[in-house]
Specification:
11 helices, alpha/beta
Length: 309
Amino acid sequence: MAPASFHHTSNAVCVMDASGRLGSTMVLRLLQRGYTVHAAVQHHDELQFSGLSCDHSKKLKIFRSDPFDYQSIIHALKGCSGLFYTFEPPQDQPTYDEFMLEVEVRAAHNVLEACAQTETIDKVVFTSSVTAVVWRDDRKSIESDLDERHWSDVNFCRKFKLWYALSKTLAEKTAWALTMDREVNMVSINAGLLMGPDVSISNPYLKGAAEMYEDGVFVTVDLKFLVDAHICVFEDVSSYGRYLCFNHVVNRHEDALMLAQMLTPSAPISPQSFEQDMRIIQQRISNKKLNQLMVDFECESQVADAPPA
């Protein structure tokens, strides 16, 4: 059965911020699927989308858009039926702290308010994080797996200075409050740690990584899977609410060791006991909701990507 596609008022969609790894890959994938794409970037790099085919470059419009310049957001959204929104930290403020928290929450508010003011917008896909789900005082005593119903505890995050998790939690809560108040159709993708060549120990997602590992909630996601998940929830008319998005659980010692070596290549490898090597930590987080939605989408994508016979 083909996925229930959503008949949008326009074939144009906006990707904001399109300058990061996720945003720029999303732009390319959407162009491949036939969309006209408004790529909204804070810092425009002329070379970023320079290798596009003629057909694709005709369907790409690049907008300079600052999440604190409301009119620039409105301008980028004009005529679009959908928005894929991913927060990119300002280049002059790469670390997550209390200041970044305010920046991310204000940006989410401005962007969703602009969507509420844009009549053509049918659906917003908001990129959030697994860290907006897993940080709670009671996380060891919850009997069921953590899933879309759970939220990180704001006071817990503040107490342990989990600024990244707190930013993601408050920005997403701000977005949901505004969408409910203004009747904007939104779904969120709560992503695990995005893997790739640029993942490093300085990634703010990794604050508390050892605890996430011990709790069975340390999850990662590949770029292709994450991009497909965004497009799937946008195109499927039955999508709603939040979706936990990951395709690997780090729950074996060898996985954790491999990841640690990738994050800090120069660090010495410490010998471990055999018992510790063999231990598998029980997974305590579920992505069943997204996986059920992705089944048809992945089949359709494989058909679309297959070379002609």
